[in-house]
Specification:
The chain is α+β, with helices and mostly antiparallel strands. Helix content is 30%, strand content 42%. The protein has helices spanning 4-17, 20-24, 40-44, 54-62, 126-134; strands spanning 27-34, 50-52, 69-82, 85-96, 101-113, 116-124. It is globular and about 45 Å long. This is Nuclear transport factor 2 family protein. InterPro entries: NTF2-like_dom_sf (IPR032710), SnoaL-like (IPR037401). Residues 13-119 form the SnoaL-like domain.
């Protein structure tokens, strides 16, 4: 059996494939991805901050987020597992659609159900993200 930590690390590799069908297979059908309300990515893309369902999550990861970010570089700071929960600390660098650089720190809490992801809770420096995307303080 694959460990929860290995399942999540494999998920990150699969995310970078941008293959929606492969990404869907990582999640339970009713999976949820919950990000901070009003975060810059959700606002800029006019997208929800609480995705429900493997298909919606996969569509965002495989396509929609790439309308905003290109040349994405993820650097893991730490990956920690306890039972069916895996925590990933990372730094994301990318180029925004307008050509400006983007860099922010993230923490993701993955909860698994067997060998699939049931829930992701995403945390980030929302103020920094807003300034990088919009060049101003959050409203």
């Amino acid at each position: 059996m694959t460990s929860p930590k290995d399942i999540v690390l494999n998920a990150w590799k699969t995310f970078s494939s941008r293959d929606a069908d492969r990404i869907v297979a990582l999640f339970t059908e009713d999976a949820e991805w919950i990000a901070p309300k009003g975060n810059a990515t959700a606002v800029a893309l006019d997208h929800t901050d609480h995705m429900v369902g493997a298909r919606q999550i996969a569509r965002f990861i495989a396509g929609e987020m790439h309308r905003m970010f290109s040349a994405i570089d993820i650097a893991f700071r730490g990956v920690y597992a306890d039972g069916d929960v895996v925590i990933v600390e990372e730094r994301m660098r990318a180029t925004l659609a307008d050509g400006k650089p983007y860099e922010n720190e993230y923490c993701f809490v993955f909860t698994l159900a067997g060998d699939r992801i049931r829930e992701v809770r995403e945390y980030m420096d929302t103020r920094k993200g807003w300034r990088m995307v919009f060049g101003e303080e959050p409203r």
